[in-house]
Amino acid sequence: MLVALGFLMVATFMALIMTKRMTPLLALIIVPTVFGLFAGAGLGLGDMVMDAVKSMSGTAALLMFAIMYFGIMIDVGLFDKLVDGILKLVGNDPAKVVMGTAVLTGLISLDGDGSTTFIVVTAALLPIYHRLGMSPVVLTCVAGLTNGTLNIVPWGGPTARAAAALHVDASEIFVPMIPALAVGLIVVFGFAWTMGVSERKRLQREDPLRWGPGSVMTEGTGGTGGTSGSRKTPAGGRGVALLDKVAVRGDGTESATMDGTVLDPTRPTLRPKLFWFNLSMTVAIFVLLIADVLPLSYLFMIGTAVALLVNFPKISDQAKMISSHASSVIAVVSMVLAAAVLTGVLSGTGMVDAMSTWLVDVIPTTMGPYLAILTGIISIPATFFMSNDAFYFGILPVLTEAGAHYGIGAVDMARASITGQPVHMQSPLVPAILLLVSMSKVDLGDHHKKVLWRAAIVAIVMLAVGVLTGAIGIG
């Protein structure tokens, strides 16, 4: 009964948000409440949900102050040079912009924290997507795929949990999986390129005056009919359109590329004289983040306070800066706290435990020698439907114990278990993905339609390469 209710609850939630019958925020609250009542929780639902809210309060605080901190850094101009550099590399070509998204996300994902990665990526690239007329769903898809694939780094959560649950060394899990990770990233970059080319063709089809052959926006993009250098570059010959901070419209008018965006070069919040201070402080925060010497939420609290004090000494300016980021904070934190309803009901009613036991019981004994492969396959949906903690500390030890009877080592099971992370990172139970879609103003259902099947392919490819290279053994 609990197994059926658990899977039906998650399926109902997914159906409602993907068909846009209900917003994710409402679905996260209403659907678990209804199914919790069906499960017989009654008035005990309140305690279940509040216990989950308490456990997620640290995450909510982290996201709240991380959004404020990076928002302030965007306002004062810390990332302007980064965006300029990206523009010079990718030019006007949507395909190159999408590839740049994958590369930038991959580099920042090495810190092991999805939230800060998505904040920086959206801050740097979302204005470019908007200015070119590209779909922000492509940004969330590529960023989510890249970050999910790199989520298996040993200092990341899944590998550390698998190591702790099975009492093996994290590096012993990760190092043999490097070939699988490399191939997974190649597949991600392949998806990024095809989505970029698709965006380029869509723009050419929908706005031929701006993107057609020979137009300013297609010069130097390759394969679009334009010939680089065939048109006189504006403003002193520093480059075409975006490289020159000028967008040429179909009607012949021009406007500053970043005008009206968070990276408007004339915004009054710019603090160029404090650039090196802000950069040093941000680098210091990342160093402390990796060193894990302070709780992340407290680290960003301090960073936000210092950033406001130094960049905006006047109390009135501080109040304006805080209020200017209130909408972003509310959108993300409310989603995280709403997700606590789903996780609270799943764990409080015993649905997670029942689902875990059922998954183990349905595996036929004849499939025992292939239990590591099955674990990898199971990890794809399981880590989407439940938290990493529930899977790695609940399901994985039981599967590993069963695998030991067939001569499958714990480290093989651990390696297989982390291959589902590209799909896991798209789960509404992951605060970072809620942050990404909220900051990009993308509907979670639209994100899932584009990303889930691609993430599943990446996960399966990583599992297959792990088996072929011998990193994941067969009994």
UniProtKB/TrEMBL annotation:
Pfam family, one: CitMHS
Location (main, coarse): membrane
Domain Citrate transporter-like as annotated: residue spans: 14-420
Cellular component annotations (GO), alphabetically ordered: membrane
Superkingdom, taxonomy of origin: Bacteria
Region entry Disordered, spans: 208-236
Keywords recorded for this protein, A-Z: Membrane, Transmembrane, Transmembrane helix, Transport
One GO biological process term: transmembrane transport
The keyword Membrane is assigned to this record: yes
Entry's localization field: Membrane
Topology with respect to the bilayer: Multi-pass membrane protein
Membrane-spanning ranges: 25-46, 58-79, 99-126, 133-153, 173-195, 274-291, 297-315, 327-347, 367-386, 451-474
Protein known as: CitMHS family transporter
